[in-house]
Write a structure and sequence with these properties.
GO molecular function, one term: DNA binding
Largest sheet: 9 strands, mixed
Helix content: 40-55%
Keywords: ATP-binding, Helicase, Hydrolase, Nucleotide-binding
Structural class: alpha/beta
Organism: Cryobacterium glaciale
Strand content: 15-25%
Radius of gyration: 28 Å
Pfam families: ResIII
Protein name: DEAD/DEAH box helicase
Shape: elongated
Number of strands: 22
């Protein structure tokens, strides 16, 4: 009966203003009046009807299939909460699933039951304060995002405030006083930030210890360290490692199966890098080779330098991909995630030259950054470049193409970054993320559907794997600071310098499979994959990728055909020695053989190899440089 009444109201004209236009808000108000005394499965419905119709993908456009009702997981989580109505409740839901909607619906229910009187929302950033307040207003809850610690209190016309974790840490006693002044529900958004600093965790416990109810939310319920997260329960697993316990979990895999989030297609780019170390050695390496962490980090750093050709090539490919996506999704946007402000500005200049229109730049220390994000979410510009402002919780649902051009590679940061692109608005949308071929990033991409908990202890396993993959943290730190001890000799004479970078398309990773072969940027072989239509079901994407791979393979075979005989030239044999250890062993053996033939000391031969082929000593040489020396010695031995 209620559903029929909804349909009747929504179909009736409602005059809005003097011009007689039909107004959605007027019809919405009539629906709210019709529902005031309607029973709810969770209790009295008073004050909750607006939250029922809140867009889960705020701001602007609702996500596909969600406007007008709660998603199944949100209703399920509410049921789980009201079974026991615990004081503390941790809901872990994948980015893009609609945690804000769930939290505001729960807040509205608790207010309607007179369980709580006031609401405090704690968010990670200033930008999210406004976003929470705007979303709450649509749910009939008035929150003050402008509250400052100096204000000491807020007006009675508000139902509560939105503050940041840093704000609470600065005046924990004040927020404790506000919490004690009324029966308070505290919503801790992205609660893992509560462990960012010891002082933050202590302040949050002090300020919100007296709260009547605490709802903790996170899209990434794990950290790369062992800092405890406030108000989260930990229990030992079978290995004795204390793990965080979620009261309700909704992972990416389930959300993907439900059609709540988009599948992600990773476009992986390799390439040849050349740089000079602080010791003055010129190094060469290819992304994706089995190099040491130090060499991989420097090759990665070289790729991200805007002065080379790797970044422009990848940005051109990403812009082509965005053009293809916009054929089906006209307002689709792209985001480049940069390491720092200098490179962000340089990337924006390159992008503007490629796409021919202004690029939105968002830098974390600029006051207008939040406004720029809001503006970009509402317009139809193609590209935004950001450093850290576009983080967890920031909703720009039209983002469909991303370039991961940052050296940050912790599981937490990677999950948050990818979360910016997975918010589905309609069926058939697929997110496209361009990645450098770095082993740590590829491992994280492959583990995207893996649900993690936060480990409070480190494992004592010999392999150093505590079950919570922490990819190359030391490697990234070294890349952003200075070369390690092996390169410190002569540091007064040289500085690290990127010399050259070239990009090659490597493969597409989708749904656990890899597609494609190495191809030069700008060729048909590359466009076979970046030109896939932007609106396809996941099964269609997989099938089309297989077809494109087959077509690419056929082209490769045709190129190897002799135009006269029709014979197919054999492919170059794959490298026999794929690891540095094997290459070093082989090189040592070849040096020994040449030493006997030429009657020269090993050290002299190694020095000559360095002089001819370039690069540092064997211990610091890359796969590419060792292979060059191996090939040279093989040629010499073949002629002798």
């Amino acid at each position: 009966m209620l559903l029929l009444r909804h349909q009747t109201i929504l179909s009736e004209p409602c005059v809005n203003g003097a011009n007689g236009a039909v107004g959605y808000e007027g019809r919405r108000a009539l629906i709210d009046l019709a529902e005031v005394n309607t029973p709810s499965v969770f209790g009295p419905a008073q004050g909750t009807s607006a939250a029922e119709h809140l867009s889960p993908s705020f701001p602007e456009r609702a996500a596909w299939g969600t406007a007008g009702k709660l998603r199944a997981w949100q209703a399920e989580a509410l049921e789980a909460y009201f079974v026991h109505e615990p004081r503390d409740f941790l809901a872990a839901a994948t980015p893009g699933a609609g945690k804000t909607t769930f939290a505001l619906r729960l807040a509205a229910e608790l207010r309607s039951r007179r369980t709580i009187d006031r609401i405090t929302v704690v968010a990670p950033t200033e930008h999210l304060k406004n976003q929470w307040a705007d979303a709450a207003a649509r749910a009939g809850i008035r929150l003050d995002p402008m509250f400052k610690n100096a204000d000491r209190s807020y007006g009675s016309h508000y139902h509560g405030v939105v503050v940041t974790y840093a704000q609470v840490a600065a005046r924990a006693a004040l927020h404790k006083q506000l919490t004690e002044s009324s029966r308070t529900l505290v919503i801790l958004d992205e609660i893992h930030h509560g462990g960012d600093a010891l002082s933050w965790g202590d302040a949050i416990r002090e300020a919100f210890g007296p709260a009547t109810r605490r709802l903790s939310l996170t899209g990434t319920p794990f950290r790369s360290d062992t800092s405890p997260i406030p108000f989260v329960s930990y229990l030992p697993d079978k290995h004795g490692i204390r793990m965080s316990q979620s009261d309700y979990a909704y992972g990416y895999g389930r959300a993907l199966a439900d059609g709540v989030v988009r599948p992600v297609m990773f476009m992986v780019y390799a390439g040849h890098m050349k740089w000079r170390t602080r010791a003055g050695d010129e190094m060469e390496a290819k992304l994706g080779e089995g190099n040491t962490k130090d060499i991989t980090s420097q090759a990665w750093r070289t790729a991200l330098e805007p002065s080379g050709q790797w970044i422009p090539s990848v940005l051109r490919a990403a812009n082509s991909r965005l053009t293809e996506v916009r054929h089906g999704i006209p307002d689709a946007g792209g985001l480049v995630i940069a390491t720092d402000q200098t490179t962000a500005r340089a990337y924006a200049v390159i992008l503007e030259d490629i796409c021919g229109e202004p690029v939105t730049i968002v830098l974390s220390d600029e006051k207008e950054a939040s406004d720029r994000i809001d503006e970009f979410s509402k317009n139809t510009r193609r590209w935004m470049v950001a450093v850290r402002m576009v983080s967890e919780g920031v909703d720009v649902p039209r983002l469909a193409v991303g370039v991961y051009a940052t050296s940050a590679a912790t599981p937490l940061y990677f999950a948050q970054a990818i979360g910016r692109f997975v918010r589905a608005r309609r069926r058939g949308e697929t997110a496209s993320i361009f990645l450098p071929n770095v082993p740590g990033l590829l491992s994280l991409a492959n583990a995207l559907e893996l649900e993690r908990d936060h480990a409070l202890d480190r494992s004592n396993r010999d392999d150093g794997d505590d079950g919570m993959f922490n990819p190359e943290d030391a490697m990234v730190a070294a890349a952003n600071k200075e070369d390690k001890a092996s390169d410190e000799l002569g540091q007064d004479d040289f500085t690290w310098q990127a010399l050259d970078s070239q990009a090659t398309f490597d493969m597409v990773m989708f749904d656990g499979d890899e597609f494609g072969e190495l191809a030069e940027p700008g060729t048909d072989e590359e466009f076979d994959f970046i030109g896939i239509p932007g609106l396809l079901e996941p099964e269609q994407v997989s099938e089309l990728l297989r077809q494109r791979q087959s077509r690419q393979s056929k082209r490769s075979t045709d190129k190897r055909k002799d135009p006269v005989t029709g014979d197919i030239a054999p492919l170059e044999p794959p490298p026999l020695y794929r690891t540095l250890k094997e290459q070093r062993t082989l090189l040592s053996s070849l040096v020994g053989m040449w030493s006997k033939l030429a009657n020269e000391p090993h050290g002299m031969i190694h020095a000559e190899m360095r002089r001819i082929c370039g690069g540092p000593a064997v211990a610091q040489a890359s796969v590419t440089q060792l292979q060059m020396r191996i090939d040279l010695l093989r040629r010499r031995l073949g002629r002798s």
